Amino acid sequence: MTVQRAAKASETEKIRYRSHLRAATLKEYLPVCTREFSQRETEFLHEDKGGSSFRIGIEKGGHAGFWYDAECTDCDDGCIIEGEILYGSKKQAENEMLLFKIGFWLTAAVLFVIFCVPILVLFLVERSKGRKRKQSKEESLDLFLCEYVHCEKIADS
To answer: How far is the CA of 95 from the CAs of 17, 61, 88, 90, 101, in angstroms?
Structure first.
């Protein structure tokens, strides 16, 4: 397995840890540990998601960054921490999706105005001109013989 494949595989797989602390105690202790680690090593962020869940910001990237999104489960001798490394957050993904939808509908509205309104105006103008009444057979014959063949119609006596 190449280095890139291994990195991709580790980002999508669950990463598990065991702690001798109970889940509640661990969650209380995490902000202190995060601050200390950030001062000595690399800047990490901490977010408490409520319940037994938390997130640790492990690397800045673009406008979102990478987060270890985890949940603690108590066991006999402490707790198990299980999570995965994700880019951004669900909330951010929802916001980006909302912005995409708004952009799509605004673009659709502009294109509608650009293309459909002129067509509608032309349709209404043509309709307002009215349609010619269809000529009868005798009128068509009169037109042909009088105008094109240069004949003269004789009135009935």
So the answer is: 31, 18, 11, 9, 10
Complete DSSP assignment for 100-143: HHHHHHHHHHHHHHHHHHHHHHHHHHHHHH-PPPPPPHHHHHHH
Strands 15-19 and 78-87: antiparallel
Q: In what order do the strands lie in the sheet with 15-19?
A: 15-19, 78-87, 66-75, 53-59, 45-50
Q: Position of tokens 């509640």?
A: 24
Q: Full-prediction pTM beyond 0.85? A: no
9 pLDDT more than 60: no
Q: What is the pLDDT of residue 56?
A: 84
Question: Minimal CA–CA distance to 55: which of 35, 38, 78, 31?
Answer: 31
Of the candidates 42, 96, 33, the one whose C-alpha atom is nearest the C-alpha of residue 66 is: 42
**Beta strand segments in the chain, E:** 15-19, 45-50, 53-59, 66-75, 78-87
Q: Which residues pair with 54 in a beta bridge?
A: 48, 70
What is the rounded distance in angstroms from the CA atom of residue 81 to the CA atom of residue 17? 5
8 Å CB contact between 30 and 54: yes
Token duo for residue 81: 């921490």
